[in-house]
Amino acid sequence: MEALSHRDGEARFGYLDDDSVPKSSVTPTYALAVLKVHNERWDGVPFFLRCGKALNERKAEVRVQYKEVPGDIYPQGELKRTELVMRVQPNEAVYVKLMTKKPGMGFAVEETELDLSYSARYKDIRLPDAYERLFLEVIMGSQINFVRTDELDYSWRIFTPLLKTIEAKKIKPIEYIFGSRGPKEADELMKKYGFVFTGTYKWVSPHPKL
């Protein structure tokens, strides 16, 4: 990541500016993978796996974006895509980002949401931390929330050759600014496969303590 960045009035330094990191390091701090499942159910549906350090938000979520349908009564581009988001961390929540008509006699629309915030809905229940459930299942001998062997094998078949190539050829990572969404090339790649990012909506929990 690049060093040129200011956030909250404070200068932030990039990965290579750390004295403990060799200047020749090519260790990536961001990754985006586009995967496809070749079966009848998921034919034509791209899966984006995206992660990185020092991005604009610290979160873990699953986001499903729905394409437009034909016969829209609004002009092209006026409506944003509907998205189902499952927020894993922080503040577990499930919400649907969708377009609704603003109250009144007009036909103007705006982005809004239907949401379920776990800590608000289940106030009297302690929600376990990230690995607590997994540790409990290890003790109980349960594998219900662990990946299967075939899934693990496939992941290594995909990523092992890639990681070996990066290491052997010393491929330099694409730089991005501290506190950004990541490299602009990542957004361009996702757009190529049909994902639409507008940047006009940000989910805010309706419960201040969250």
TrEMBL record:
Ranges for domain Glucose-6-phosphate dehydrogenase C-terminal: 8-195
The UniProt entry, under SUPFAM superfamilies, shows: Glyceraldehyde-3-phosphate dehydrogenase-like, C-terminal domain (SSF55347)
> What is the catalytic activity of this protein?
D-glucose 6-phosphate + NADP(+) = 6-phospho-D-glucono-1,5-lactone + NADPH + H(+)
Q: Which Pfam families does the UniProt record give?
A: G6PD_C
List the InterPro entries hit by this protein, alphabetically: G6P_DH (IPR001282), G6P_DH_C (IPR022675)
Reading the lineage from the top rank, the first entry is Eukaryota
KW Protein biosynthesis (keyword) present: no
- Report the top EC class in one word: oxidoreductase
E.C. number, please?
1.1.1.49
Any Gene Ontology CC annotation = cytosol
Pathway in which this enzyme or protein is active? Carbohydrate degradation; pentose phosphate pathway
What molecular functions are annotated in GO for this chain?
Answer: glucose-6-phosphate dehydrogenase activity; NADP binding
GO annotation, biological process? glucose metabolic process; pentose-phosphate shunt, oxidative branch
Which keywords does UniProt give here? Carbohydrate metabolism, NADP, Oxidoreductase
Q: What is this protein called?
A: glucose-6-phosphate dehydrogenase (NADP(+))
| Organism of derivation | Ascaris lumbricoides (Giant roundworm)
The organism that produces this protein has a lineage beginning with:
Eukaryota, Metazoa, Ecdysozoa, Nematoda, Chromadorea
